[in-house]
Amino acid sequence: MLTALLAPTLAKAADIVDTAVAAGSFNTLVAAVKAAGLVATLKSKGPYTVFAPNDAAFAKLPPGTVESLLKNKAKLATILKYHVVPGRVKAADIAGKSLKVKTAAGLPVNVDGTMGVKVNNANVIQPDIEASNGVIHVIDTVLLPPTRASKGHH
Q1: Is residue 130 part of a domain?
Q2: Residue 22 vs residues 63, 90, 143: alpha-carbon distances, Å
Q3: Cross-strand bridge partners of residue 137
Q4: Are 129 and 88 in contact (CB under 8 A)?
Q5: Which residues pair with residue 119 across a beta bridge?
Q6: What is the rounded distance in angstroms from the CA atom of residue 136 to the CA atom of residue 127?
Q7: Which of 11-15, 18-22, 94-98 has the lowest mean pLDDT?
Q8: pLDDT for 42-82, tens place per residue?
Q9: Rounded CA gap, 121 and 143, in Å?
Q10: How far is it, in rounded angstroms, from Cα 126 to Cα 49?
Q11: What CATH number is given to the structural domain containing 34?
Q12: How far apart are CA 32 and CA 70, in angstroms?
């Protein structure tokens, strides 16, 4: 009886990585996760909230950015972890709020749910894609962690 109840859930619940692969619009993100060696992390139990830049978001970066990041695993891993928040955060959880949320990179992002949802300067264009080990929010801009060299323009 119990297996019959669990079967449909197990069949459709893919983890964050498999969900991103299946979506087909995260080829750059998936390649970056593989290059940075983060596949095992994002397939682990979690739960994680991932702000996932789609391929169009990566395409907006200056030419050569993605290629240079793919060669610099440490920097790439930091940038990718900057898109991951421990725990399962859904759009409804942040609606009407403005928060600073600590990412897996140890750096905070600003999450603003007052008009739609924005993460730093990125818009969430598709919220709440469920995965077995977390939730994915599609964003239209790659989040770049603040560097000491750049001064905040707010």
Answers
A1: yes
A2: 26, 21, 22
A3: 51
A4: no
A5: 111, 122
A6: 7
A7: 11-15
A8: 999 999 999 999 999 999 999 999 999 999 999 999 999 99
A9: 8
A10: 13
A11: 2.30.180.10
A12: 6
Q: Quote the pLDDT of residue 147.
A: 76
Domain membership flag for residue 119: no
Kindly state whether residue 153 falls inside one of the protein's structural domains.
no
In angstroms, the CA 154 to CA 136 distance is: 27
Domain that holds residue 42: 8-90+124-139
Number of domains in the chain: 1
Please give the structure tokens belonging to residue 59.
């395409």
| Bridge partners, 136 (sequence order) | 50, 129
What's the pLDDT tens digit per position in 88-117?
A: 999 999 999 999 999 999 999 999 999 999
Q: What DSSP character marks residue 129?
A: E
- Bridge partners for 99 per DSSP: 111
For the question of whether the overall pTM of this predicted structure is more than 0.90, the answer is: no
User: DSSP secondary-structure letter at 95?
Assistant: T
Residue 66 and residue 81: Cα distance in Å, rounded?
Answer: 16
Of 52, 73, 75, whose CA–CA distance to 141 is shortest?
A: 52
DSSP string, 51-68: EEE-HHHHHTSPTTHHHH
Give the residues across from 126 on adjacent strands: 138
Domain presence at residue 2: no
